Amino acid sequence: MKLYSWNVNGIRAVWNKGAFQEFIEEHQPDILCLQETKAQPGQSEVDLPEYEEYWNSAERKGYSGTAIFTKIKPLKVINDFSEEITKKYDFSDKFGDTSREGRVLTLEFDDFYVTTVYTPNSKGDLERLTMREKVWGPAYQEHLSELQKHKPVLACGDFNVAHQEIDLARPKENVGKHGFTDEERKDFTNLLNKGVIDTFRTLHPDMTDVYSWWTHWGAARDRNVGWRIDYWLASEELEPKITNAEVHMDVMGSDHCPVSITLDT
């Protein structure tokens, strides 16, 4: 089974470029998780008859949002966090309410959950770092823990953090900047301590120069000055079944590229 994750940075734009169709034709994912769709289902021209489509769109139009396209019908669809988690935390700040931005979408299958996330960005001046560290991080960790009480989990998406120095091209220059603060990196470590693995780094512990996002500035993608901030995480018990983990740096259409795992079912 091939599972892909891709921050498309606007699904309508990627579709209109033809990049989405080319990607589907070449890679044929069994399950495709999307972040930053920036669309309601009815606004998208995406037409893929072989897939079931599930959307969690932001209340604010043209912003954020997640979706999962799957060839395998799920048992259950869960939007956002559970009621218990939502009541426990205050997700609102001056930028909005992160619990209403369509940032988490989960499908239950026979043997596992697939959940995708578009993690809030802590902002260039770190104005949203407190939300990221004190609210979103703990809430998302609880979300994975809740799911894992029932079944193993495959969790993917744009986590908006490079975990280790090997995960970005210029670590020294970016220490303390958004996406590479001590707080965000620690939050990701805490997430891994919930009984999940970073599939790519587990299979490729020393692989360098592999990134999933590049800034638009300075021809960063052409020069491969990037960050690996898109991940597939997996419950530790699924590790023996994960036969491959890839970052598809050749796929164009967004400022992110897709990341994938292959699961032996």
Relevant terms:
265 residues, six-stranded mixed β-sheet, 14 strands, globular, 25% strand
What is the H/E string? EHHEEEEHEEEEHEHHEHEEE
- Roughly what fraction of the amino acids lie in strands? 15-25%
CATH homologous superfamily (4th level) name: Endonuclease/exonuclease/phosphatase
Mean pLDDT level? 97
Helix coverage percent = 10-25%
Radius of gyration: 17 Å
Shape: globular
The total beta strand count reads 14
Just name the CATH architecture. Answer: 4-Layer Sandwich
How far is the N terminus from the C terminus? Answer: 7 Å
Major sheet size, sense and barrel closure:
6 strands, mixed
Quick structural overview:
The protein has 265 residues and is α+β, with helices and mostly antiparallel strands. The protein has 7 helices and 14 strands.
Q: Describe it for me?
A:
This protein has 265 residues and is of the alpha+beta class. The protein has one domain (2-263): Endonuclease/exonuclease/phosphatase (Deoxyribonuclease I, Chain A). The chain has 7 helices and 14 strands. The strands form 3 sheets. The chain has a 6-stranded mixed sheet. Strands 5-8-9-10-12-11 form a 6-stranded mixed sheet. The chain has a two-stranded antiparallel sheet with strand order 6-7. Helix 4 runs parallel beside helix 6 (182-192). The longest helix is centred in the middle third of the chain and has 20 residues, at 129-148. It starts with a strand and ends with a strand. The model has no long low-confidence stretch (mean pLDDT 97).
